Amino acid sequence: MANKSAGWEQFGGRGRIASRPDVTDPSMSPESSALLNRALQDRERLAVLDAYDIMDTVPEEGFEDLAQLTALACATPVALVSLVARDRQWFKARVGFPSCETDLDRSVCKFALAEPDLLVIPDLTADSRTAANPLVTGEPRIRFYAGAPLRSPEGHTVGSLCVIDTKPRPNGLTATQAGHLRRCARQAMSLLELRRATVEKAVAVGSRDAALRREGHLAILAEASAALLTASDPSRVIEPILETSTHSLGFEQCFIYDLAPGGRSVRLTGSIGVDEAMRAALADIDLDKPLCGIVVQTGQPLVLAHVQDGPEPRYAMARESGVDAYAGYPIRSRGRLSGVISFGSSTQGAFDEDTLTFFATIARYLSAVRERLDGEAALRASEMRSRLAQEAARIGTYEADIASGLMTVSPEFCRLFGLPVSPLLSVDAATDRIVPEDAHLASTQASREAGTTPPQATYRIRRADDGAVRWVTRTASFVHDSEGRPVRMLGTVQDVTEIQETLRLLGENQERLRAADQRLQVALVASGVVGLWDWMVDTDLLHGDANFARLYGLDAGRTEAGLTMEQYQEFVVPEDLEPLRARIRDTFEHGADFHVEYRLAIPGHDLRWVECKGQLIHDPDGQPVRFSGTAVDITERKTAEARLAASEAHWRGLFERLSEGFIVGEVIRDEAGAVRDWRYVEVNRAWGELVSIDPARAVGRTIREMFPGIEDAWVHEFADVVETGRPVSFIRQVGALARWYEGRAFPLGSERFGVIFLEVTERVQADARREGLLEFGDRMRTDADAAEVVKAGAATIGRVLGVGRVGYGTVGPDGETLVVGDGWSAQGFPALAERHRLDDYGLYAEDLRQGRTVVIPDVREDPRTKATAAALDAVSVRALINLPIVEKGRMVAILFVNDDRPREWAGPEVAFVRQIAELIRQAVERRHAEARQDLLNHELSHRLKNTLAMVTSIANQTLRSLSDRGPVETLQRRIQALASAHDLLLRRNWSPAPLHAVCEGVVNNAADAGRITLDGPDVALGPAAAMSASLLLHELATNAAKYGALSNDAGHVDLRWSVEDGADGPDLVMRWQERGGPPVVAPTSRGFGSRLIRTGLVGTGGVDTAYNPDGVVTVMRAPMVEVQRT
Amino acid sequence: MMAGDRDDGPRPVVLVLQDEPILAMTMRDFVEEAGCEALVVRTAEAAIRILEERTDIRVVFADLDVRGSMMGIKLAALIRDRWPPIELVLTGALPPNLDHIPARGVFCDKPFREAKVVAAIREFAT
C-alpha cells in the first residue's frame, strides 16, 4: 500500500512510548474499563499468547500475505496482524504502518478483545473510546477502524486482524468486505495454531536430543568403567571411546597432558581432533602458554565460555586455535598433580551443566587410572630397588625417566659421583663424569629408549668434587609400559675401585671367586639393609652385627656384645609385639620356620618395617643352642604396598563418589543354565540414594530378593548383556518404587556385568504429562459428547499418573451430594457407587466448597480424614486429589484422583490434574451451552409451527362460510411454504441453507417428483434469502399447477441456477422455465402471488417474467452478497 | 361430499387427542370431513380410558405435542401394543424420528394440509 503520508513516517520515527500495563481510559465507564483490563491481564489469555511463541519474531510470508489480502479486500491503506500482550500490541504483519508495535494507549485493537465478532468504528473521532487516542488526535490521524478478533480454540482473544483508514467510513465495511475480514482472521488463526503445534513439537524434539546426549554420556561412562574394571591399561581405552563420541558429546577437541618432570612444562600425550602441527607445538610446551597451564598452576578445574569474545591476553593461544568454550581438569595421582585433561569447542560458546559434569567424571576416571598405574609401577620399582640393594654394596640407586632424561637418585649415588646431594639429576650429569676412554660404555638416549643398554657395565669416572678417578659398576633394568616400551631405567652404581685393584693384583681364575665373595661381603656390609643376628640360648643374649644395630638404632658395640631379647623388643610397636612373641614360641615349641614382619618405633626415626627370618640350630642331642637369622629393612616395600592399597581404595572411592548409580552384578543360573536372577556384587552410595535402600543391605543378595515382584526385564536384559557380551542402554521403571531409571549395562567378563544409571522419573513423568495434555487436547476437539470428554480426560490422568481411579462427579445445589459419572479406573480397581454424601468422607468437603484443591498423600495421616479413613478405605482410597470445579462462586463438580496406596503427590502432578480439569470444565461447559442452544432452538421452532398451525386453523374457521375454498387453500399453502423453509433453517441451526435443499422443500410440497428438474452449483443462502426464495418458488409452482406446465399431465419445469458476474460483484441467477403446458396466456390481474414474485429473491426486485407461447420463463437475479447475508 | 355416502349405519368413530381448543376444532372438522364421528379428549390418560371403555374406536388422531404424563409417541406405541387394530394418524410441530412411529402410523406435519389429513383418516376409517 503506497498510501503513506509524511505523518506515518514521522510516527514511525518515534518508536514505542513507555507503556502502562494498567489501562485506565477516561472515556470508558469504570465497569467496562475494569472488564477490559481483566481481559488484557487474563493470565490464561497471556499463557495462550505465550504458547504461540510469536511476539517479536521475524516477519513471515504467510502473515504478510494475509495482511496484503485484507488491505486489498477492504480497500484500506493499512492492515495489521496485531497481537495484544499485557502492556503492548505487536504487529506480526503490517501493511502501510511503519511501526512494529505500540503501547496500549495507542491501541484500538485492545477493544476488539471484548467483542464477540467484528469491531467496526466508522469514525474514531466520534467514538468515546478512541476520540482521545494519540493516533487519532495526532499523526497519522486515523479515522476508521475495523478488526476481527484472533480467537484461539480455547476461546481466548490474542489479538486482531484489523484495517485502518485515514478517512471515516460512515457505512463501515460492506458485507463482502466484512466476510473477507472474518475469513482472513480465521486464516491468521490457523497459521498461529500451526505455529503452536510446531513449537510444542520442537520442545518435545529438544528434550529428546538432551535425552540422547545423556544416553551418550552414560554409554561412555559405562565403557570407561568397564575399562577401569577389566583392562590392564585403561588410559589407552579412554581415548578411542571419547573419539567416537565427540559429536554427540558436544566438543570437538580433547587434550591429555602429562606434567613434565620439573613441573615447568606440559607434554601432550593424547588428543582428539587435533592436527599434526598443533600436536607438535604442544609436544612440550611452557606452562604460560596453553590454558591447561592455568589448571596446572592453580590445581583447580578451569571452565571458560565465549573465549573468542574476551580480550584476556592469557587466553591468546586458545583464541588463535579457535576454541570458544573450554573446560580443563587436573589429573592427580598419589596426591599430586600429574597432568591435565581438557575439552574445547569452537562451535558452541559454552558447555552445558550436563556436559561439564560428564567431563569432570572423565577427569576423575583418568586420575584413577593414573593412580593405579603409578602405584603398580612404584611397587615394582621399589621391589627391584630393594633386591638390587641387597645384591650390591656401597651402592647408589637411580631411576631415570627415559623421555625427560631426568633421574631420581639416592644420596649415595650423588656421593659416588662426587656431586652435591640432590634427589633429582639429569642422566647427563652422571654420564659426563665418565672418562673419555670409557665414554663408549655409557648408556645413550638411544640405548635407553630401545632398552638395549647392557644390564651391567664397569667404567671409570672422574669424581666431580675431588677429581679422583674411580671404577664404577653400573647395572640397569627397565620398567616397560603396557605396550612393552621402556619408560624408566633403574639400577645401581657401585664403586668397585678396590675390587678392580684386587682383580688387577690377582690371577684371573681366583678373581671370580674372590670377587663374588667380596661382593657378597661388601653387599652385606655396605648395603645397610641386611642385618645378621645370633641368639645364644645358654646366655640368653642376642648378638647383632653393625647393620642389625643400625636397624634398631643401637650402638654396634652393644649389639655385638649381646643384649637380651627384651632390650630389643622395647622398640617393637606394641601391636606387633604379641605376634612376634607368638612366632618365637612356635619356633621353639614346634620347630616352625621363623618368618615375621614387625614395625620398630625408634626415637628420632620414621616407623621402620623389619622382616625377620631365622632358624633354630640344635646340638647333636637335639637341644636348641642358637637361634640365628637375618633382619631386613622392608620399609620401602611396605610403603609402596600401602600406596597401592590406597590407590585401590581411591579407585573404588571414585565409584563411590559418582552421582550415577553403579552396580556390579553376577548372574545366577538354574540347573538348565538359564539366568533366573542376579546377585549384587558391588553397589555404590549413589545406588543407595537412587533406590532408597542402604547399599550395605544389597551386596550378596539378589535383585529378586531386594525387589520382590520386580519386572522380569530387569533380569533378562542384564542376562543378555552377559550372554552376548554387548552393552545395552535402557530406560525402565521399577514399578514397586514407581521410579524410572536410564542407564547402560556392560559386560565385565565371566558371569559379571556392570550397570551405571541415573534416575529419570521426573523427566519421564514430565514427558508423559506433556503428551497426555496434547493427546487430551486432540480428543477434546473431536469428541462431541461431554461424557466422552470427561472419560477421555479421566483416562489421561489415570494413565499418566498411574493411579487407581479418576472420576468426575457433579455436586448438587446443596453442596453435599456428589453424583459420579463415568470415569476411569485401573484394571481390578473397584468401581465407585453413583451417589455419595461428601461429608461422609471427612472434613475436607469444606475446603472443596471454599474452592480449594485438596491434596492428601495419606488419608490416615491427614487431620481432615483421620477420623474417616475407614470410610475412605471402604472405597479403596488411601491417597487422593480432589479438585473443585467452581462456577459463579459455587462448587458444581469435583474431579477426583484416588489411589489405594499412600502417595506423595508432586507439585507438577497436581498442576497437571488442574490443567486437565480446566480443559474438561471448558469442554463440558461448551457442550452444555451448545445443548442448551439446541434445546432453545427446538422449543422455539416447536412453538412457531404450532402457532402457524393455529393461524391456518383460525383462517379455516373464519373463512368456513366461504363457498369458494380456493383462496383458503392458497393461504394454507403459502403458510406451509413458510413453515417448510423455517424447518430447513432450523435443522441447520439458522446457518446458511443449500439452495438445492430450499428448492427441493418447495417442489416436494407443490408437485410430483420428476416434474421439476433442479440443477445448479452449490450455493448457500442466508436465512432471509432462504425464506423469501421459498415463498417465491412456492408461488411459481402454484401458478404452474393452476395455469402452466404443471396443470396438465405432460408439462415439465426446469429450475436452473448459476453464479454470474454482475454490476457489483457476482450475482445469483435463477431461471424457472416451463415447457409442455397449455398455451400461455399472460395474466391480466395482479394478485399477491405475482407481486410476491416481483419482489425477487431478496426483496429488491430483479425478476423478469416472459410469457412465451411454449411456456413461462422467469429469471431471478440478486447479488450473491445479499443472498448470503447472514 | 359429506358423510352422506353412508347414511345408513353408525359412522366410524375417530378419537382425537388435542389439548389446544382451536386446533381441536380444526381436527374435528377434518374427521367429520372424512365422514367420521369425532370424539375429542384433552389428555393421553383420558384417551386411554376411552379406549378401555369403548370398542368402536377405529382411528386415533393424536397430536404428539399434547403435554401430559404420557406424551405423544409413547401413547402411540401403547395403543399399537394394547389395541393393535386401531389405526394411528399422528401430527406434531416437529417430525419425530420415523423409526419410532408404530407400524401403519401416518404422520402429518403442521401446519395441516387438509387434503392429506382427510385422505388418511378416510382411508383408515372405512
Automatic annotation (TrEMBL), chain A:
Annotated TM spans: none
NCBIfam families: sensory_box
Reaction(s) catalysed (UniProt annotation): ATP + protein L-histidine = ADP + protein N-phospho-L-histidine
EC number: 2.7.13.3
Protein name, entry field: Blue-light-activated histidine kinase
Entry keyword set: ATP-binding, Chromophore, Flavoprotein, FMN, Kinase, Nucleotide-binding, Phosphoprotein, Photoreceptor protein, Receptor, Sensory transduction, Transferase
Coiled-coil features, chain-numbered ranges: none
InterPro entries hit by this protein: GAF, GAF-like_dom_sf, HATPase_C_sf, PAC, PAS, PAS-assoc_C, PAS-like_dom_sf, PAS_4
Top enzyme class: transferase
PAC domain sequence ranges: 455-508, 594-646
An example Gene Ontology molecular-function term: photoreceptor activity
PANTHER family in UniProt: GAF DOMAIN-CONTAINING PROTEIN, SLR1143 PROTEIN
Region (Disordered): 1-32
Database matches in Pfam families: GAF, GAF_2, HWE_HK, PAS_3, PAS_4
UniProtKB/TrEMBL annotation, chain B:
InterPro entries, sorted: CheY-like_superfamily (IPR011006), Sig_transdc_resp-reg_receiver (IPR001789)
One Pfam assignment: Response_reg
Domain Response regulatory: 13-125
Residue positions where 4-aspartylphosphate is found in the record: D63
Keywords assigned by UniProt, alphabetized: Phosphoprotein
GO biological process: phosphorelay signal transduction system
Gene3D superfamilies xrefs: 3.40.50.2300
Protein name: Response regulatory domain-containing protein
Organism in which the protein naturally occurs: Methylobacterium hispanicum
